[in-house]
Amino acid sequence: MSDSAAPSAGHPRNGSGGDAASGPAPSSPFHALADFVALPRLGGLALSADGTRLVTTVTTLDAEGKKWQPALWEVDPTGRRQARRLTRGPAGESAPVFTPDGDLLFTSARPDPGATKDAGDPTPALWSLASTGGEARLVLQRSAGIGSVAVAADTGEVAVLAATMPGADDAAADEARRTARKDAGVTAVLHESDPVRFWDHDLGPAAPHVYWLGRLPAEPAAGTPAEDVQWQDLTPDAGPPTGAGDDLTVSPDGRFVLRSEDVPDGPAGRRSRLVLTEVATGETRALVDDPLADVGAGRFSPDGLSVVCVREAASSYTEPPDYTLLLVDVATGQARDLTAGFDRWPSAPQFDATGSAVYFLADEDGRHALFRVELDGGAPVRLTRDGAYSDLQVARDGSALYALRSSYASPPVPVRLDPRATDQQPEELPSPGSLTALPGTLRELEATAPDGTRVQSWLVLPEGAGPGSPAPLVLWIHGGPLMSWSSWSWRWTPWVLAARGYAVLLPNPALSQGFGQDFVRRGWGEWGGAPYTDLMAAVDAAEALPEIDGTRTAAMGGSFGGYMANWVATQTDRFRAIVTHASLWHLDSFSGTTDAAWYWQKEFGDPLAEPKRYEQNSPHRYADAIRTPMLVIHGDKDYRVPIGEGLRLWYDLQRRGVPSRFLYFPDENHWVVTPGNSRIWYETVLAFLAEHVLGQEWQRPELL
Predict the structure, then answer these.
(1) Is the C-alpha dihedral spanning 696, 697, 701, 704 positive or negative?
(2) Which pLDDT score is estimated for 133?
């Protein structure tokens, strides 16, 4: 495909994709893929103790355009001043957190200015940017790198996660074991329990440990900064596969460290519990250990006497999971349900400034809303009308809340919210993440499923779509499956397709969260049932609109959405093309090779003892029915849906003579996370759709 192609919105004849090299300037950054991948991307927020400073991470392309590089930016909480960039390290910076004194801690793999020439490549270390400004200084490093960082809100004491080799008592012993393996040419890992992999990386032999550092030195002394800090291992017995976990928080007074910890749950199963460690004694006890649930996301109250956490009731063959919030007494471990009867799935809880209420987030009707629930009783109150919220920050004086807000009309941007007002539509704070234009409009669409259930969707319409110029339609199916189309996604951005004249339908079928437990239950263990008929009902509703050309349609999806795309291909030939990314094809094979096999077998059962659901819902059993051209996409580092699923699907299509192509990424995972490969992903998808939906000649992307 030629990069000189310049597709314009509202003209599907130009739908093969590419970058505008000549002609009028595009009306939005989505018209040229080079502009799209260069858009700034915001993630994470940190608020200073006095509420005067708000910091976010902004990711942009590096100078060579080959990778995305994060940097820290300061946003004015009052909204009066423009955002300003704080860091410019060559390796980027992330995970900002303030100390009570106003210093900004962050992690970065930038080089140590005092390192010798033979120091080797730097690993993520802890750096500090003083409240008074100046250059960032290296505070803490370890040869294998630093993971999560947690700070006590009142005392400023610090705890970190760092991967440690089994049997290593200190950093020197850890380094010696790593060196011995390297010198001996050993890369093998001996596993004694599942899991062995996670998403895109192998587990073991090192595992995360929690280290207590106390108050960090104001200025580093001569020599390696790590030598100036006393490392107290609070989890000396942590070992493979998951060690001390990755969810870490510290009580405001620095007395306790709270974390979630994976423990065995029957043969080959895992569940998580909430564990509390007293720093002074090292004594560790389970604060919430429920054999029928996963427990995590714990956060302390301002006085440190209580904890709020999320309880996820274990799923089973007959029932999907359910979520609630628990309020737990730190001294006794007694817990009570804060959201009993609330038919949504709460997440990311934290206390308000006074400790009398808890804020949390939950999907509801295609939005990811902010809620408040009082500790003394009452139903949760929804504070936001539209949009999807994340990274909530609570001002310590109770004056305001801050969060990142997105929707399908906006990527994440920082906003200021009132702590109590309902039906809020907050104005965004000035930041690098704002968009100036979109190549179309967004509307909400409703359909009725065959069983009478309402199905909600988002519909993106390209510029110029109307009764006289109806747009071709792409059905885009979300992953999960227990999620929903509710927030902006850089990996699944419908506006790239809209800029080339396509309408994009984003439905929330059965199994989607945010519509009640019964809505999830409709598709539980029957992925080919209500989820499929809900999707087709949504497509019928979209095709009934005068802006839509129902004769030119395609379907696509990734992960569970890829499964559904495969299922659609076996059940109907109404679409001209199907794109399936990181998809499940052979459910029996998938259930034993994925990184979390025990989770999926709760729903589908043992494939040998209970084969029914595998036989009824596995798309591979109906491969002979496929007539629609398919584009198969898969990454070799995908351990959630292993590459074998894509290879088997590709072979089955080829053997049956189905027109198909296979876009293979040897070094990508479940997603596609590098700029070059992301651009190729979109180029290939657009070329495939142009060929089969628009009837254009196939244009192979130039770099493939």
Answers:
(1) positive
(2) 85
Q: Are 393 and 45 in contact (CB under 8 A)?
A: yes
Alpha-carbon span 382 to 342, nearest angstrom:
12
**The two three-digit tokens of residue 195, written as one number:** 């899991």
The model's pLDDT over 39-59, given as tens digits with 9 standing for 90+, comes to: 999 999 999 999 999 999 999
Q: Answer whether residue 661 is part of any domain.
A: yes
**C-alpha–C-alpha distance, residues 564 and 698, integer Å:** 25
Residue 605 lies in a domain: yes
Residue 454's H or E segment, with its range, is strand 454-462
Amino acid at 172: A
How many DSSP H helices and E strands does the chain contain?
A: 11, 37
Dist CA 648 CA 654 (whole Å): 10
Range of the domain at 620: 12-37+435-692
Query: Is the CB of residue 327 less than 8 Å from the CB of residue 445?
Result: no
Q: Angle at CA 560, nearest 5°, toward 556 and 583? A: 70
Q: Is 75 helix (H, G, I), strand (E, B) or coil?
A: strand
Number of domains in the chain: 1
Q: Answer left, alpha or beta for residue 282, where phi above 0 means left and psi between -120 and 50 means alpha.
A: left
Spatial strand order in the sheet of 503-508: 440-448, 454-462, 503-508, 471-477, 548-558, 577-581, 630-635, 660-665
Q: What is the pLDDT of residues 325-368, one digit of tens each?
A: 999 999 999 999 999 999 999 999 999 999 999 999 999 999 99
Q: What single-letter DSSP state applies at residue 406?
A: E
In b/e form, how buried is each residue of 232-261, taking b as 16+ CB within 10 angstroms? Answer: ebbbeebbbbbbbbebbbbbbebbbbbbbb
**What average pLDDT does range 176-181 have in this prediction?**
96
**DSSP tag of 676:** H
Q: Classify strands 401-407 and 410-417 as parallel, antiparallel or unpaired.
A: antiparallel
Distance between CA atoms of residues 49 and 176, nearest Å: 40
In a domain, 454, yes or no: yes
User: Both tokens of residue 281?
Assistant: 């004694």
CATH number of the domain bearing residue 605: 3.40.50.1820
Going by DSSP bridges, is the β-strand pair 54-61/41-47 parallel, antiparallel, or unpaired? antiparallel
Quote the DSSP letter at residue 618: -
Q: Which amino acid is at 47?
A: L
> Looking at the domain assignment, is residue 47 inside a domain?
no
Reported as a single tens digit per residue, the pLDDT across 433-486 is 999 899 999 999 999 999 999 999 999 999 999 999 999 999 999 999 999 999
Per the model's pLDDT, the better-predicted residue between 483 and 27 turns out to be 483
Whole-angstrom Cα distance, residue 593 to residue 700?
33
Distance CA(100)–CA(603), nearest Å, equals 46
pTM for the full predicted model:
0.94
Q: Which two tokens stand for residue 9?
A: 């919105």
* Alpha carbon separation from 513 to 316, 367, 390, 481, 576 (Å, rounded): 17, 10, 16, 9, 29
Amino acid letter for position 509:
P
